[in-house]
Amino acid sequence: MYARYIVGITFGTSGYRGIIGHTFTKTEVTQLAQAIAAWAGSQSGHQVAIGYDPRAGNTYDDMVGMMVEPFLERGISVLGSDRPIPTPVLAHTVKHHQLIAGIMLSASHNPPQYNGIKLNPFPGGPASVHVTNQIEALLIAKPSVAVNVPKPGVLTCTNLIDPYVARMVDWITYQYSPPTRNWENLPPILVDARHGTAGAVWQQWAATTGQSIIIDHATPHPTFQGLSPNPTSSEAVDYVAKRVLETGVAFGVAHDPDADRHMIVDQQGRLISPEMVACLMYEAMGGHVHGMATTVASSRLIQRMARACGLSLTETPVGFKWFTPAFEQANATQTVTIGVESSGGISQSNYLYEKCGFLPAIWMSILLSQSSHSLGDWVDMAWEKWGKSEMVELALTIDSDSNLLSLLKSGWFDHWNQSTVTKMDGIKWEWDDRWVIVRPSGTEPVVRIMAEAPTLNEAKDLGQSLLQRFERNG
Hints:
The chain is 37% helix and 20% strand. It is α/β, with parallel strands linked by helices and 474 residues long.
């Protein structure tokens, strides 16, 4: 909730975020660095990894260096990136090298005036509530600088992107395909890196596999050159759709600054929902998937598909960290679960517990390499098999004294036209063929309203009806 931005330092849906120079200053970074380093010192292992996106202050002379120092003082070595990198690169580095954790300086899809700190303990997924509670307790305790450390840690700055891509290629090759996979069949695609960190990964992927990739806005920039960092914004969708039609590629993909989210449009410029992408990943894997994990704010397409294909289904609050138990269970039974959020986060249990913006586009490329169908064809076939519905999202900006948050806690409007009400995360009203949810964002000062219904107009009407009720009471 927004209170997390104005009362102390606590973790939201995905780490801590604040406004640079206001709620994200050297004070907050220093305090968090000391607390995380103290926590890391209580874990097994002797090394962490640190990454960062291109936002202002994310350099070793500034915020990154301030984050590194407390670890070295405690005798914990740091594997640092020599350039801005995506969160999935950092998370996979943690997993591969079996590090204590990865620390990422990024505010994900938030505007450039924001920055944040994400924590990914081994094996690379987002920190659990148990871990963040420990760190918040250390923030209150204000751990002192370590003393009597026999030997300070060592900072090693290196290229983390090229090894990540090499591991990705090996994993795809040997996990689901004969080792002789013909990468030449991968279709041409367009990538909009939006001046974040994704460009270098796609450049290395293209160099390794030979896939033809047009990369727009590839160079990282602190302000993203004025582009919206949210890949699902109308600005990003419209731009990528236009470029796909201009270039004639098989599909287009856009990323947020730390590339843990994605947005895909097909060859006609049609936006494809993350839930649909997850369903098509199932198709690309030849059905070698046993479960789906999704959130209370995700499309029922996942439910319909899981039921039709005999897959297990896990529904969680919003936040990728909640998928970890489902991923752990899948790995324990040597099965595969795909996790998907409506905001563009996707991963799978046998790859990474953190969301990855590259994985969906790679699987869509593989899907197209295996058949003569276009991506749009696959979407239409999926709708035919599993039913079609439409989703909309609305947002209300709030401030610290807004009574909307109080309304959410008060039991206000619990009963609505014979709906079923659930409160796993915010308030959700459900009917046989539609639903609407309202919940405070864990990353921005907004209350989000999402609705799904058989048609787009019905979904819009449902969302607007709830929005109007809030505006009257807020």
